[in-house]
Amino acid sequence: MTTEFEGGRDASGKRFGIAVSRYSPKITEALLASARSCLVECGAREEDLEVFWVPGTYELTMAALWAAETGRFDAVLALGCVVRGETAHDRYISSAVADGLTQVALDTDVPVLFGVITANTPDQAVARSGRDDLQAGKGWEAALAAVEMVGLAAALGRSRQE
């Protein structure tokens, strides 16, 4: 018989660091509201959530690294928004952040979740932000993934040490 593990959806007693870009605040504030709503619905306490504001999406990687290195968090979420422009700048930013956040997770053994909207238009970004429906937002998705990864880490004996 095959043994299977999955994380579940219980965030009780867990701590989450949330790095949020100030760039495109209409979008990122909605991402944060969506993520907070999910984490609390899954049992996290507001006092177990810490938010770190950074200037832009590019800076999320460094904030995620600093947060993960503290050892205080079971998972770190990175919330931001990159909208396609007239140049290739958006692709460089998106790629650098995705690669950087992956490296932070691998280097620190802390789940780091990519809650960055990469959209073709501002309207697409708003639609994916959770502004009109918290559960439909990328912040909710990242938070739920964080809860599941924290649960999986616990099931595999890799939880943050208290």
Strand order, largest beta sheet: 2-1-3-4
CATH architecture: 3-Layer(aba) Sandwich
Order of helices and strands: EHEHEHEHH
What count of structural domains?
A: 1
What best-fitting shape do the alpha-carbon axes yield? globular
CATH class: Alpha Beta
Helical residue percent band? 40-55%
* Rg value: 15 Å
Mean pLDDT: 93
Write a concise synopsis of the structure shown.
The protein is an alpha/beta fold and 162 residues long. Helix 1 links the parallel strand 1 and strand 2.
Task: Give a written overview of the molecule.
The protein is of the alpha/beta class and 162 residues long. It has five helices and four strands; from the N terminus they run βαβαβαβαα. The model has no long low-confidence stretch (mean pLDDT 93). A four-stranded parallel sheet has the order 2-1-3-4, sandwiched between helices. It is globular and about 50 Å long. The N and C termini lie far apart (34 Å). It is 45% helix and 18% strand. It has one domain: Lumazine/riboflavin synthase (Rossmann fold, 3-Layer(aba) Sandwich), CATH 3.40.50.
Map the helices and strands.
Layout: E1 16-21, H1 25-41, E2 49-54, H2 60-69, E3 75-83, H3 89-108, E4 112-119, H4 122-129, H5 138-155
Parallel strand pairs: 1-2, 1-3, 3-4
